[in-house]
Amino acid sequence: MSATTVQILRLLRILGRNHEESSETMNDLLAQVATNTDTSRNAGNAVLFETVLTIMDIRSAAGLRVLAVNILGRFLLNSDKNIRYVALTSLLRLVQSDHSAVQRHRPVVVECLQETDASLSRRALELSLALVNSSNVRAMMQELQAFLESCPPDLRADCASGILLAAERFAPTKRWHIDTILHVLTKAGTHVRDDAVANLTQLIGGAQELHAYSVRRLYSALAEDISQQPLVQVAAWCIGEYGDLLVEGNCEDTEPPQVEEEDILALLETVLQSHMSLPATRGYALTALMKLSTRLQGDNNRIRKVVSIYGSCLDVELQQRAVEYNTLFQKYDHMRAAILEKMPLVERGGARVEEEAKERQTAAQLLEEAAPAPPEPQASKLLDLLDLLDGTPGNTQHPPLLDPSPEGALVNLLDLPCVPLPPAPIPNLKVFEREGVQLNMSFIRPPETPSLLLITVTTTNSSGGDVTHFICQAAVPKSLQLQLQAPSGNTLPAQGGLPITQLFKILNPNKAPLRLKLRLTYNHLGHSVQEIFEVNNLPVETWQ
Q1: Domains recognised in the chain with CATH numbers
Q2: Fewer CB in a 10 Å sphere around the end CB: N or C, the chain?
Q3: DSSP class of residue 538?
Q4: Helix and strand tally (H, E) in the chain?
């Protein structure tokens, strides 16, 4: 009997989808099934789950949808792991359309974070992050930060990234935002995204009233642990900028520790000498030492000695930086204070879209820069300029600049620089289309880095409903290296609104055939959509 009921419910779901009148007719029937079904057996749970799916898919009444959410909330208390997983997945689908109803079950969802099953804890993490809003951000962040400290390694990156994004979106104060990011960097610094360092330095730089507080927190964290590279980089930057505040001890919010100039220099030297420090981290520390030469009042000989040591470093970037700093000490010491003055206050705002657009525009201009305009003789440009200034006609006969003789032609040919022809543009590719949601790719291979491929992924929405919580993830074969830049947003307005753009950077030194595996997740027309597919028809020009 239960199998027949399930089939009938599936048929009702098809008939009522996007049909107002049919949905109204089904409301009472679905309410009766939802309230009278016996859940002591799995067959009853199957019927109840199909009822919930039907309520979610048709245009059901608001009260009926609340009933469906409450049923899923009861499923979370079931002893069967499969039922709990189904409940978490279904609630994740409903969180956008019935946010307040799902919020009532937030304590149970948070408890599911402690599940020993990795798939359950991952679903609970996704749902917990989706439930964060401005009213519960403090409480939810405490739970998520506690989970971050004990979660499995394969979940730590997702948890850290989710906490940082939620903090950026719902932070009640700048100080709370800084504390939250510092906690994530301290506990899971190696798992955060590449832009976490830039975001935190930008946040601290724009909060003048928190400079002293931030530099003390970072100094203390760095003194305890130098293994978390993003944390070390932020701390080195902050100490270099505001090291004078660290020595002065002018911080009303915390009890100022006794920090001497020698302690600061010794800590940065430890970072430079540590085998755990990446070259980029050493670069931060070296620059911090250089800036402290103008912030601290002591003798700069110690700093000069450290900088001079790295003038013979095997790392080219560090060596170049050290040589430049040595030159600044030796030849331009009178300009050192002005060159190394504090950074101006950084304005934070919704500049991410503009930054991404600029990055894509820069990538698009690489081909134009690689394709020079037809050469025009420099003397001709000068004569034309003189003609323009004195008003003479533009048909003046200019003397030839090149010797027309064969010998002269050969000499002039040898004098000309060898300019390579620009590569032909790579055709764009449409890789996905469903219900008005379309994803297109454009490709650029910078001439100076032929092993690098820049893919701009543009997603548009021509349907009548908004697309929300859009996420595009990608994977490549192990022989390639893929870096995903942050997308310009996660919402696609209806009827051809502003698209979402995202930049993929793929390094393919061996010129292996390129394949992409994409995973798209988003909410559209009341449904949660997930698409996983491979792109095997990329143009040959993208990898040959």
Answers
A1: 194-349 (no CATH), 429-542 (2.60.40.1230)
A2: N
A3: -
A4: 22, 8
